[in-house]
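Quick one, tokens below. Sequence please?
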């Protein structure tokens, strides 16, 4: 995950013979409070990297471990917990790879795309499948920083399914959170973490208050609507009815999702079109102004030019010329 603002750590600048030992001691034991094991015969082939950033009081980590012939074992033992208590809710996604998650009395198969939730200070073990690497992403949210997490120390780590409904909504919101994590701060970060916590607890069977539950579901549905809009921004016919149909909801419900933001559906779409056009004018200098406008879904060049000047104070052509001079 190559995004400005994220701390990056890699084993690439460490001699091959020392990589695994460094990773096990300096990253595993000292930072994450886990015990890592790997067959000695595979250690010279070990390569790994981490990208991390804070999101409000929480932290987001994106981790890659390269192809290995042997199984890669990560355990959070009673001794690890006593040595480095973390006291957080952890939500993580296995992006690529496969393996097993052992916690409590359970031994679950974990496949690419799986999302899991658990309390950090209960023992567990992750065992990656041999003859492949893995890519995982996780968010840790301190219990002390969130009122809804008070007393949630009994959540044994467990993978979730991706069934329609709440689990699917959590899965899609987690993906949106990950994409935005390096750019979130202040009130936006707090709202994103609040929504993620609420959805995760509901997915694990925790009964939320009706008001809290509705707010989290509405925020996740709004994020899903924004995602659909961005994916179809090139369509000039991108209407509330079209997006509502994509989401399986009424047009009235779609408009209700946007009401708390102070921005209507139409204004959001128009602003997104302008922002994408502005980026294209810089990143694709060979494309004509007309191509940029139509590609971003404007139904006429006059609407594109008028809206762009109102938003940025210059025409699309003037903006491109200024950026080329800079």
């Amino acid at each position: 995950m190559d995004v400005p603002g994220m701390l990056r750590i890699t084993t690439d600048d460490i001699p091959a013979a020392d990589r695994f030992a460094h990773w096990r001691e300096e990253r595993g034991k000292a930072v994450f409070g886990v015990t890592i094991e790997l067959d000695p015969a595979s250690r010279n082939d070990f390569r790994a990297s981490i990208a991390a950033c804070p999101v409000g009081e929480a932290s987001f980590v994106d981790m890659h471990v390269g192809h290995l012939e042997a199984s890669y074992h990560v355990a959070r033992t009673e001794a690890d917990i006593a040595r480095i208590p973390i006291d957080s809710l952890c939500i993580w996604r296995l992006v690529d790879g496969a393996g097993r998650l052992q916690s409590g009395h359970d031994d679950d198969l974990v496949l690419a795309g799986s999302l899991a939730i658990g309390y950090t200070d209960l023992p567990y073990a992750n065992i990656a499948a041999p003859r492949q690497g893995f890519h995982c992403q996780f968010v840790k949210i301190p219990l002390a920083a969130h009122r809804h997490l008070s007393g949630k120390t009994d959540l044994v780590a467990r993978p979730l399914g991706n069934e329609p409904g709440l689990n699917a909504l959590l899965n899609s919101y987690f993906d949106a959170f990950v994409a935005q994590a390096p750019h979130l701060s202040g009130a936006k970060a707090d709202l994103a973490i609040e929504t993620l916590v609420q959805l995760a607890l509901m997915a694990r069977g925790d009964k939320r208050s009706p008001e809290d539950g509705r707010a989290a579901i509405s925020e996740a549905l709004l994020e899903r609507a924004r995602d659909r809009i961005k994916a179809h921004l090139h369509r000039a016919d991108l209407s509330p009815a079209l997006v509502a149909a994509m989401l399986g909801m009424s047009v009235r419900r779609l408009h209700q999702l946007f009401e708390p933001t102070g921005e209507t559906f139409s204004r959001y779409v128009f602003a997104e079109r302008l922002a994408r056009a502005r980026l294209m004018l810089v990143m694709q200098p060979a494309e004509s102004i007309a191509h940029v406008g139509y590609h971003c879904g404007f139904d006429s060049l006059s609407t594109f030019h008028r809206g762009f000047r109102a938003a940025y104070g210059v025409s699309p052509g003037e903006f491109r010329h200024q950026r080329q001079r800079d």
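The chain is about 45% helix and 20% strand. The mean pLDDT is 92.
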